[in-house]
Write a structure and sequence with these properties.
heterodimer; A: mainly alpha; Non-ribosomal Peptide Synthetase Peptidyl Carrier Protein, Chain A; 4 helices; B: alpha/beta; Rossmann fold; Aminopeptidase; 3 domains; 9-stranded mixed sheet; 5-stranded parallel sheet; 22 helices; globular
């Protein structure tokens, strides 16, 4: 899977969970850019990413995630 | 889920082993399923000791697949105790039809320690059970809704090793004791249903059930891969609560109930019994089907065979099932879809209450296509349809889930078999009135009494055809209706020379001044066309007179299933007041002094 495809897939997941249509992600996008991306939404987002990409984040990865770029790298590293 | 792009037919998701990866198709499935017509709307509150959003998503899929459109309320993470005990405005406003209390072994805070005495452990068990009992009581008093409580799953690890299960200080031992107490709790609490996740965790396998990263990262228990199984199990219970459980198992014969083709191999050639591996697997499947029959599932045969051959096979000396175990045997050469439709019509149950089991994938495909409402089981195993997989495929579908076993359930098969005998007598009479008289019917019709509350509740939740308003009631609601003085609520039992049909009809009316409105009128399909509705109406009118009512208002709310009563009020002499846009008809009847009894064939006591 290409980096760009992954970003688009994450964008769809965020659109769904945050209920917001105009999301455009870059590697630097992060939770603080979106008001509805709180800790509860974060759990949903991460679980959905694991489910849809059929992989699991390492617990250490989860703790150090800062932005979309980190998520994409974790997915690329494991798939 | 190979045909993920197809519209999943009703119950299709139930009929195959729950796929842990179903989640990836969730969004796409959900859109398709929500578009189905005639979904039953229900409000379900999920109060959990862990993160429940993933569960809610999966549960929605399974419920949609069995015709229920859920609306959900979730407690904040681990706020279930506070929400119930101290109230939550959101939950109160939500007015749940069902509350699901989801806690797992991860939520057990107070556990025995290595220093506990037997007495300490006993005390801890009682305290823990008591705290749940308080929750259940509060829910019952406050919301009066059905409670689904899961029991506890085995712990993820055992610090005492094997001793963890036998020493009172072990957590495994502690959890087993709690589960025993939960099981006993249902005896006192008819509104409480225990979901057995102890069993479910075993089926899933503990290493996948207790995925530690799902717990540490998301506080989600069980693990993400086990959530579809949990949702599937829960949906099976919920559809049963709302009267949608399957009722009849339709079985093929050749290579389904025995090995081989009886028409070719002869009765001595078929493989059934204890002699070979294959023969004993077929016998085991027959024994499983027989056990289902004994607890109230109706059995039918649908087989491409000469009837004589079919009967010969079922009379095989090693056969666990005999021809008498089947309410109906359709053995002929017509297409199975036609035979299955005939089975539903002759037993008089909805086609969506049937489950079809056939080893032949081609037959299964045709039935799925022609009769999409029939649940078609997909066996698996080494050969795709291997007899070794039959029991598991049926058992894990959860289609015959049951929430309590009433005496009625145990007698159900008998009722339907007696009906088959009545039908034979009917053929011998040319005049329908003569036939009714020949049945020597006697009815007991009276105001609700507590011993029947369970059965009445059950009827309100599963009767779909003769049901004017299709309103569902919970047990506490039935109790409160029976206790109130402004209600006229009657039940009817019917007996005839072939047997006791049991409690088969209910009318529930609410009085305001001199008007009685019929909120609910239903009758079991067992006794259609027997004039029982006339006897019930006579009795209702006489109660209304006693309460000085001068008019009765009746509502007919159309559903896809209750066409049979669309003109009932008209036939009884009601006047149409008006019809609303959705076909909802409102009817009026004057209670006259000179009311003459309509029933002439049933002796009423």
């Amino acid at each position: 899977m290409q980096e760009n495809d992954i970003v688009i897939a994450i964008q769809e997941i965020l659109t769904d969970i945050l209920g917001q249509a105009d999301i455009e992600l870059t590697r630097d996008s992060s939770a603080k850019d979106y008001k509805k991306w709180d800790s509860l939404a974060n759990v949903n987002i991460m679980m959905t990413i694991e489910r849809e990409f059929d992989f699991k984040f390492g617990l250490g990865d989860l703790d150090s995630m800062k932005n979309i770029g980190n998520i994409v790298d974790a997915i690329l590293k494991r798939s | 889920m190979s045909q993920s792009t197809d519209y999943p037919t009703p119950l299709q998701l139930f009929c195959r082993p729950p796929d842990p990866k179903i989640g990836r198709l969730k969004r796409q499935l959900q859109k398709k399923l929500s578009g189905q017509p005639n979904l039953l709307k229900k409000r379900i509150a999920i109060l959990g000791g862990s993160t429940t959003s993933e569960l809610v998503g999966m549960l929605e899929l399974y419920l949609l697949n069995c015709g229920i459109l859920p609306e959900f309320h979730q407690s904040e993470f681990n706020q279930y105790y506070e929400d119930i005990m101290f109230g939550s405005p959101e939950l109160d406003a939500f007015k749940p039809d069902i509350i699901y209390l989801h806690t797992t072994v991860r939520n057990i805070k107070r556990q025995p320690s290595i220093h506990s005495t037997r007495q300490d452990v006993d005390d801890l068990v009682s305290e823990t059970v008591q705290s749940f009992a308080t929750l259940w009581d509060t829910i019952e008093n406050k919301y009066g809704c059905t409670i689904i409580q899961n029991n506890f799953d085995p712990p993820p690890h055992r610090t005492l090793g094997n001793l963890d299960g036998s020493d009172p200080r072990g957590l495994t031992h502690f959890v087993r004791e709690l589960n025993q107490h939960f099981a006993r709790a249902i005896e006192q609490r008819p509104g409480l249903i225990i979901q057995d996740i102890d069993r479910l965790a075993a089926e899933v396998g503990l290493s996948s059930w207790h995925d530690p990263s799902s717990w540490f990262a998301y506080k989600c228990s069980p693990g993400l891969d086990a959530i579809p199984r949990l949702a599937h199990s829960l949906a099976g219970l919920i559809r049963t609560i709302f009267g949608k459980a399957s009722k009849c198992l339709v079985l093929d014969l050749d290579n389904t109930l025995w090995g081989g083709v009886i028409g070719d191999d002869g009765v001595e050639g078929i493989r059934l019994g204890r002699e070979t591996a294959e023969a004993s697997a077929f016998l085991a499947f027959q024994e499983y089907a027989k056990a289902l029959k004994e607890r109230g599932v109706i059995l039918a045969v649908c087989s491409k065979n000469e009837e004589a051959n079919a009967l010969e096979g079922l009379n095989h000396p090693d056969s666990a099932l005999s021809p008498d175990d089947f309410t109906i045997i359709q053995a002929n050469w017509s297409p199975k879809s036609e035979n299955i439709a005939d089975i539903a019509a002759s037993i008089n149950i909805g086609i969506d209450s049937l489950v079809f089991f056939d080893d032949n994938p081609a037959e299964r495909e045709i039935v799925k296509k022609q009769l999409p409402d029939v649940a078609v089981i997909e066996p698996g195993g080494p050969t795709g349809s291997d007899v070794s997989s039959y029991i598991a495929a049926l058992d894990r579908s959860g289609l015959f889930e049951s929430i309590n076993l009433s005496n009625e359930d145990l007698k159900r098969s008998r009722y339907y078999s007696e009906n088959a005998r009545r039908n034979k007598v009917k053929l011998a009479h040319t005049d329908y009135g003569d036939y009714l008289d020949s049945l020597e019917m006697e009815a007991e019709i009276a105001l609700f009494i507590p011993q029947y509350f369970d059965r009445i509740t059950q009827l309100t939740n599963k009767t779909n055809q003769f049901n004017l308003t299709t309103r569902r009631y919970t047990l506490p609601e039935i109790q409160s209706v029976a206790d109130s003085t402004d209600h006229i609520d009657i039940y009817g039992r019917l007996t005839d020379k072939f047997g006791d049909n049991g409690l088969v009809s209910v009318i529930l009316g609410k009085q305001l001044d001199s008007t009685v409105t019929i909120d609910l009128w239903l009758m079991s399909c067992r006794v259609f066309k027997r004039d029982m509705e006339l006897a019930m109406f006579d009795a209702f009118v006489s109660e209304a007179k006693k309460k000085k009512a001068t008019q009765i208002i009746g509502h007919y709310i159309p559903t896809p299933k209750n066409q049979i009563v669309s003109s009932l009020y008209e036939q009884l002499g009601f006047n149409l007041v008006r019809t609303e846009d959705n076909g909802h008809g409102i009817w009026q009847f004057d209670v006259a002094d000179e009311y003459s009894q309509k029933n002439t064939h049933i002796k009423v006591s």
